[in-house]
Hints:
Blueprint: H1 2-18, H2 31-45, E1 61-71, H3 79-82, E2 91-103, E3 107-115, E4 122-133, E5 141-152, E6 157-169, E7 175-190, E8 198-212, E9 217-225, E10 228-238
Antiparallel strand pairs: 1-2, 1-10, 2-3, 3-4, 4-5, 5-6, 6-7, 7-8, 8-9, 9-10
Amino acid sequence: MKKLLALLCTLGIAQPAMAASITNLGAIGGQAQFRTLSEDLGAALSYKPITPAAPLGTTGFDMGIAVTQTDMSKSSQLWSKITNNGSTVSKLYVPKLHIAKGLPLDIDIAAFYSKIPSTNITLYGGELRYAILPGSLTQPAIAIRGAFTKLSGVEQLALNTRSLDVSISKGFAMFTPYAGIGQVWVNSTANVAGLAAEKFTQFKTFVGANLNLGFGNFAAEMDKTGGIQSVSVKLGSRF
C-alpha cells in the first residue's frame, strides 16, 4: 500500500519534469508515428473505472482524487518533436477529480475531470453502469459499463474514446477485489496538414481492489489497453 500511496505523491514531483504542451504535431514524422502516438494516448486517456462492479445503491456516492500512470515508451521519443520544450515522455500522469452516484435499479453514473499540470491537455469523461447481478454475501457482483472520454485544450489534436466492458467483484468485509475485460474505440484526428485521422480499437483488461475503511476509501487498479499498461490509484470516500 505504501508504494501505491507514493504514486500520488510522485505526481507533484515527476509531472512538471516530464510534462509539455503539444504544439508542433506536424513535426511527428509521418502517419505511422501518429498512429503510435494515438495508441499510447488512447490507452492513457481512455476511461479507468477504479471501482468494483457492485452498485452503490440509491443513496450511495463514490468521490475521490485519482492518478493514472501510463507507460508511453512506444511514443516517448516522439514527444521531443511535438512539445514546446522538446522533452521526452516515458510515463504520462493523469490526475482526476472523480464522482459517482448510485441510482435505482442497480444503475450507477459517474464523471471525472482532469487537467494535466504543465501541459495543454484537459480531459473529461463519464460512465453509465448497470449491475446485472448486484452481489450479496454469497454471490459476486457483475456489471456492464459504457464510458467515454474526450480530450480538449490541444488545438492540433482531437481525440475521444468510447468503451464497453464487463466486470466482476466480490466483497470480503472491507476488501473488494475486482476484474474485467472490454473494448476501447479510439478516434484521433490531427488538425495539421499531412496526417489522416486514426480510428481503431484496443482490447482492454483490468484488475483492481477497493478498501473501504469507513472514514476513507482507497482503490488501486492495473489496466492493459492495447497491451499498454496503466496503474491507477484513488483516495476518497465511498458510502
